[in-house]
Amino acid sequence: MPNFSEKPTIIFDMDGTLLDLAYDDFIWNELLPIRYAEQHGCTLEQSQQTLFSFYQQHNHTLKWYSSRFWTSQVGVDVLAMQIEQKAKVAKRVGCTELLQYLKENGYPIWLATNADAAGLQFKLEETGIAQYFDVIVSSETIGHAKEFIEFWQILQQTHTFDPENCYFIDDTEKVLNGAEQFGIQQLYSILQPSTGKAPRETCKYPMLSALTDLIPILEAQASQQDKEQKKYA
């Protein structure tokens, strides 16, 4: 008989999902090019071209998410720069409301982010959202980025969960592809990860406009489970 009493595990990405990606866009696309140009005595255009080449080379790799790696590559203390601008870190609309709802209704809530451990720590301190999570994991500690099935395999070995009774919400399609390959079936993306950019027009996965849009989805599943449970009663 199915276990109808077991609530699904809800796994969230952080940047662009729970937090506004406008902060990261500012750091990497605006501020770092300025700091790199100052450090290396080049024009802003040259700096942007150099950094864009670096970004393309390492995009979607574990190095891409490492403050230490970028500091070694560009000669700018990237972590210090991020912390300097931490006041710009902002939760997306509905973040607290959704997390509070999940907590009050007994859902296991996990945070799985590609942010390195140091970047994760200061964002958790700045936003105060750590209190809601039962499990918090950085890809740096796993040893693989979330884009790859190995991340999910190691995560499951470390923290047991059922991929068939799990929701994963992430703003990056390649990350969702990795989760799908692993076997997670309930996958959702984000319509507008950054308030500084227009909403997306297309995505392979259903997109949440507001984070709280997840609530009626979960309530519909719970209602369906109640109906199924009555069949076995």
TrEMBL record:
- In the record, what terms sit under GO molecular function? phosphoglycolate phosphatase activity
Naming one, the record's GO cellular component terms include: cytosol
An annotated GO BP: DNA repair
Entry's SUPFAM superfamilies? HAD-like
Recorded hits in CDD domains, A to Z, give: HAD_like
> From which residue to which does any coiled coil extend?
none
Q: Which PANTHER family match?
A: GMP_IMP NUCLEOTIDASE YRFG, PHOSPHOGLYCOLATE PHOSPHATASE
Q: Return the protein name.
A: Haloacid dehalogenase
